[in-house]
Design goal:
The protein is α/β, with parallel strands linked by helices and about 750 residues long. The chain folds into 4 domains: about 170 residues, Dimethylsulfoxide Reductase, domain 2 (3-Layer(aba) Sandwich), CATH 3.40.228; about 170 residues, 3-Layer(aba) Sandwich (Rossmann fold); about 110 residues, no CATH class; about 170 residues, Barwin-like endoglucanases (Beta Barrel), CATH 2.40.40.20. It is about 30% helix and about 15% strand. A 6-stranded mixed β-sheet has the order 20-22-21-27-19-23. A 5-stranded parallel β-sheet has the order 3-2-1-5-6, with helices on both faces. Strands 7-8-9 form a 3-stranded parallel β-sheet, with no helix packed on it. Helix 3 packs antiparallel against helix 6, helix 3 packs across helix 7 and helix 3 runs parallel beside helix 9. The longest helix has 14 residues. The structure holds ligand MGD (2 copies) and molybdenum atom.
């Protein structure tokens, strides 16, 4: 998220794509409504379903699931035709827009209508609304990302905002509403199997950096792995763990199949292909659930031995920092003592490390408090020491606690403290909060904002991808953060570059000593992001310069599949007429596993499974629903699992509202028995299921399987019992927003 919820108060136009904040982010929705009302901002909602959010829209656009790229290019077609793009912004700050133009040319109004289903007039109206009401924000959520083309989708939406010059300004932004409390913090700190914390990657350099932060020997760290190669190989994402249990060993890029699985705060009914996951759960030798609830792991597989439930307590029963959607941190206090014998996650982790014999290394610089609990302040201090790359380094426990104490001093729109001891700082010190806590950087409310000096929360696009490509400069052209002494683009800073600028003399002796220790025989090569002293950041910032460079944003992401995002039909599509022109990606391998695309799309499933199935959220329940379905007040509000179906489809299939139906999926004889909700909310040919239910399996109640007294109040069939294969080639995010199914009266 480049801006914040609060900053939407500044937006002159608001477009929400594949997000239903009225249900999934009801508090944030209040900020959207403020922006809409105060600025008379058009609110455009792009969704295959007429959602509760769409009910607030000034313009609702119904698209076919899985057609976000052609929709985006269709808008840009009008913008380029009319010269509405921000030409100077593109010239100074964007790389590759001409290649985008060439692709966009193909998406004339006729082709957009054929593929997306939106008439040309509406496309033109929406394009004009966004072009003529600037700055505008583009908000998106899972309707855009949970696709076999998720990464390309996200890039197309970002390109749209770049074309309008909407990135790096208040009221603009690419604002992605995140999911759980602290999901942003989890992503930042290592949940992602492709990287060590703070996006350093998995290279030797990254491991050496973190070994220095953790104060352990790199050689010792390496000895923990089977080989250096495996140490630097991406892991297996939770979307596909059971494939690593089930596939033939020869298809795996690791020694052996997975034999043990930890569900650590994972619902289990939240990944597609549950029939296969169930087999995986039955096949592993060890299954451990670390959760306040027994989860779907209790209800689904038939297994007795080698199964453990470690009772974790919730965030309300422990303390520590959490990171919000807009990159800001808050300090949370313990609200209640852990109930029963449950324990905080870091306690469980410490005990586990102890059993495995590496707790001394793992908790070397973290005090173990009374009751064997690792000190959470020390944990954040360790995070601060290492996460220099994203400026997660300045938010010390002490600073965060001050922010909580002085909440009343912060302005609700600018997020700045306007009075009191924290005057000038942004609430929660949203990252990047550059350098050490002592440097007192105020945090960054709006990313890439050249209107502010770097030391006050300003910035520019980073120079992460080199300085030129095929003879074309990747550096910014005449655009720079306010007060910068370098009035042009520049590469990332190293100690060597600092010397060239003659600024190295401004380092303290201690900072220089740290850099030289890290650099060994090549101190000039030490980059700003591994400089544990943060001296390079401190000195460049004093010159108004951003240490991570000043480059153009890449509209063309060379190095990724489809550097220019192109439309590809979902791998399960009813539109056979489009498959040849817009094929899925060829089968490939990644994340240690085979990855199918084209070979599935080549088979026509649409005769037996003619309806598009999409899935998502209800306001009453959260995620897999184990917690919320166990809450009697919420459980009362949604008592049965259902499928939304259009009245025309329902009448054709002889289905009445409230009646039981079978929803059949295209793989593994998947099926679920649910109630029909006949509604205009979905268009013809599209059905929707919420994914919060569990505890029924293919029509059979599994309640007896839960440990006594631990069964949720409401049980129901899982949508993911029906959803199918499909993974984004970059992230392996699962496709759960566009697959096929067949609905029949039960
Ligand atoms: N009450 C509640 N709130 C939650 C959660 C919860 O479980 N319950 N979960 C939290 C989490 S983890 C997250 S990630 C967020 C998610 O929040 P959202 O992404 O807003 O929620 P979803 O309902 O999954 O999907 C949003 C919309 O995408 C639409 N959609 C489906 N396919 C497409 C498509 O191809 N293109 C487009 N443009 N739209 C499409 C769906 O119709 C749906 O209305 O919510 C968070 N908030
Ligand atoms: N079909 C379909 N599938 C989806 C989606 C969809 O839109 N459609 N959305 C996807 C998305 S965006 C997400 S984020 C995932 C969510 O998938 P999950 O993360 O698997 O779902 P949750 O139910 O939120 O899981 C959280 C679990 O953590 C437990 N828990 C709560 N607090 C704590 C704690 O402090 N410590 C520990 N150890 N456990 C705790 C809860 O009891 C719960 O069992 O689902 C994904 N799956
Ligand atoms: Mo999520």
């Amino acid at each position: 998220m480049t801006n914040s919820y609060n900053d939407i108060h500044n937006s002159k136009a608001i477009m929400i794509m594949g997000g239903n904040p009225a249900e999934a982010h009801p508090v944030s929705m209040q900020h959207v409504l403020r922006g809409k009302e105060q600025n008379k901002a058009p609110l455009i909602v792009v969704d295959p379903r007429f959602t509760r959010t769409a009910a607030h829209a000034t313009e609702y656009v119904r698209i076919r699931p899985g057609t976000d790229i052609p929709f985006m290019w269709g808008l840009l077609w009008h913008i380029f035709e009319n010269g509405w793009e921000d030409k100077e912004y593109i010239r100074q700050r964007v790389y590759g827009m001409d290649e985008i133009r060439a692709e966009v040319k193909k998406w004339n109004p006729q082709e957009v209508e054929r593929v997306v289903g939106v008439p040309g007039e509406q496309m033109k109206r929406v394009a004009e609304l966004m072009a003529k009401n600037r700055p505008g924000t583009l908000i998106w959520c899972m309707g855009v990302t949970q696709h076999s083309m998720g990464t390309a989708n996200v890039r197309a939406l970002s390109v749209f905002q770049l074309a309008l010059g909407n990135i790096g300004v208040e009221g603009g932004g690419a604002n992605i509403f995140r999911g759980h409390c602290n999901v942003q913090g989890c992503t930042d700190l290592g949940l992602d199997v492709t990287t060590l914390p703070a996006y350093y990657g998995l290279t030797e350099g990254a491991w050496r950096h973190w070994s220095r932060v953790w104060d352990v020997d790199y050689a010792w760290m390496q000895s923990r792995f089977e080989s250096k190669k495996m140490m630097e190989t991406k892991g297996i994402p939770s979307t596909r763990w059971f494939d690593a249990v089930l596939v033939d060993k020869k298809d795996l890029e690791q020694n052996d199949n997975v034999k043990a699985m930890f569900f650590w705060g994972h619902g289990g009914n939240t990944v597609p292909r549950m029939p296969e996951m169930r087999t995986g759960m039955e096949k592993v030798e060890l299954l451990v659930v670390v959760d306040p609830h027994p989860t779907t792991a209790a209800a689904l597989p038939d297994r007795k031995d080698g199964t453990y439930l470690l009772p974790a307590c919730t965030q309300l029963e422990t303390r520590g920092s959490r990171t919000a959607s807009n990159r800001s941190l808050q300090w949370g206090d313990q609200i209640v003592k852990p109930v029963f014998e449950s324990k905080p996650d870091h306690w469980i982790l410490y005990k586990l490390a102890k059993k495995l014999g590496f707790e001394k290394e793992m908790f070397k610089n973290i005090k173990i408090d009374e009751g064997d609990e690792p000190n959470v302040e020390d944990i954040l201090r360790e995070i601060n020491r290492g996460t220099i790359s994203i400026g997660y380094s300045g938010q010390s426990p002490e600073r965060l606690k001050e922010h909580m104490k002085h909440q009343a001093d912060f302005d609700i729109v600018s997020l700045r403290a306007t009075k009191g001891p924290l005057k000038g700082e942004f609430y929660g010190l949203p990252w990047p909060c550059w350098g050490t806590p002592e440097m007192k950087h105020p945090g960054t409310h709006v990313l890439y904002n050249t209107h502010l000096p770097v030391k006050d929360g300003g910035g520019a696009f980073r120079a992460r991808f080199g300085v030129e490509r095929n003879g074309v400069s990747l550096l910014a052209d005449g655009s720079y953060p306010k007060d910068s002494e370098i009035k042009d683009g520049h590469p990332e800073f190293t100690y060597g570059l600092l010397k060239k600028m003659g600024w190295d003399k401004e380092l303290t002796d201690a900072e220089r000593a740290t850099i030289e220790r890290i650099g060994g025989n090549n101190p000039d090569g030490v980059g700003w992001a591994i400089d544990l002293s943060c001296g390079i950041i401190r000195v460049t910032m004093a010159h108004g310069v951003q240490a991570m460079g000043n480059a153009k944003a890449r509209a063309v992401a060379f190095g990724l599949p489809d550097p220019v995002p192109v439309h590809r039909e979902p791998i399960y599509t009813p539109r056979r007429d489009l498959v040849e022109k817009y094929p899925a990606m060829a089968d490939r391998r990644d994340y240690r596993l085979p990855h199918l695309g084209k070979s599935i799309q080549d088979k026509d499933f649409s005769k037996d499974f003619p309806m598009i199935l999409t899935t998502g959220r209800l306001v009453e329940y959260e995620g897999g629903g184990e917690e919320t379905r166990s809450n009697k007040w919420l459980a009362e509000l949604q008592q049965s699992m259902f499928v939304e179906i259009n009245p025309a489809d329902a009448s054709r299939l002889g289905i009445k509202d409230g009646q039981d139906v079978w929803v059949h999926g295209p793989e593994n004889k998947a099926k679920a028995r649910v109630k029909a909700l006949v509604t205009q909310r979905v268009g013809q040919g599209v059905v929707f299921m919420p994914f919060h239910f569990s505890g029924f399996w293919q029509g059979v109640d599994q309640r007896a399987k839960y440990p006594p007294g631990a069964d949720p109040i409401v049980l129901g069939e899982s949508a993911n019992g029906v959803t199918s294969y499909g993974y984004d080639p970059v992230t392996h995010m699962h496709e759960n927003k566009a697959t096929l199914c067949r609905v029949e009266a039960a």
